[in-house]
Amino acid sequence: MRPPRFPHASVRVKTTVGALTIVFIALGAACAGLLTVTRHGLVETAEKTARTRAEAIARDTRDGTLVQRLSVPGGEDSLLQVVTDHGRILAASENLTGRPPIAAFQPSAGRAVAARSMRVDTVTAERPYRVVAVRTESEGNAATVYAGTSLQTAEFTYRLILSSMIPGIPLLLALVATVTWRNTARALRPVEAIRAEVAEITERDLGRRVPVPASHDEVARMATTMNHTLDQLQQAMDRQRRFVADASHELRNPIAALRAHVEVAIAHPELLHGSDLLDDVVRVQALVDDLLLLARLDAGRRPDQAPFDLADLTAETLRRRPGGQLPVVLDASTPAPVRGDRGHLARIIDNLLDNAQRHAAARITVTVAATGDTVVAEVCDDGSGIAPADRERVFTRFTRLDESRSRDAGGTGLGLAIARDIAAAHGGTLTAQPPRTPGARLVLTLPRCPATADLAEGARRTGPRTGTIEPA
Asked: What is the pTM of this model?
């Protein structure tokens, strides 16, 4: 039996009703089991007594020592009767004197004894008995010995147990309902406090936290988890607000410059320089593309999982970069197989090279190698370097350590942030490490994947991957 369902009821009601249902079923089963076992035991005891007496009388009947008046122990309410197959009564106890046969059943074929519970009308009254039938012979004639033991004690015990348990069941159910109702209310009190606090939290007031009970139970763990989730939500909202504010700030300058050029073009067409206008448009477009990529990365979009050689990709990226930039020394002599989105990882290499080009004095070095289960790519320049206190801050969005030079070079402060987010999406890391020589050293680490024949063929098509590579 399943507990009743109340889809719109409270947890207290459901818990109380469920507890009552289970206890009621358990009590009913226990009561029925006790009554059955008790009655069966008493009936079995009565049957054994009657069978012993019937078998003794059957032996006397076969031996010819049967007396007509059968005696029973004093004070017992028992029956004794010997009846031939023709219905003639050979002997009977005193309480069956002058009475007809008390039963007509006999043991079935192959069995010596049969027993039934029945009511028998004796000289004194009609009462319940456990009657046993045993086959015997008397002077060559087949006969049946009937012996009965009273079941009044069994019925009295049955009624006593039943009358004692039935009134106690409602009292016990009421006690269970009261205890369950109160304990459920006590257990749910912290939950209600958490619910009330969460209901007060809005997007403008994410600093509030739910109370954590001191019980260290499931509710306390839920409250702790909820506070942790609120911490993450607040951090995400703070990042979003900063991102929107920084994006608005960054877009304002190129849009203002673009507007100024348009206004000049309207007022004085002869002063319009198409290259200036195009530069502003390109800058706005690049910034919007960066913001769109960051939004996709923040949304948790999983990158493609295609295998390729990072060394090949680095060499290709270096060769297709526009001219007018510093040459790059590439050391990628060994295969560096990784798995991911080829375009996204090329964006990391491009961003790291752009950063190095803005800060390098005369030399940029790129190293790609596989070490154990990882692939490591390092981009080093001989510029002014990154102070230890700024080695983490450079990956914050819209951060520029050299404001004037970054703006003049067209930087938006998003390149390293985008590169780190792409690396994280591929299960890797991007960090600024202490340089081995004066300058800056940025290290990309990615999980290594097993090399395949396709990767080896691609390496042969790419050509040499070690030496100085001039931009296109």
From this structure: 0.54
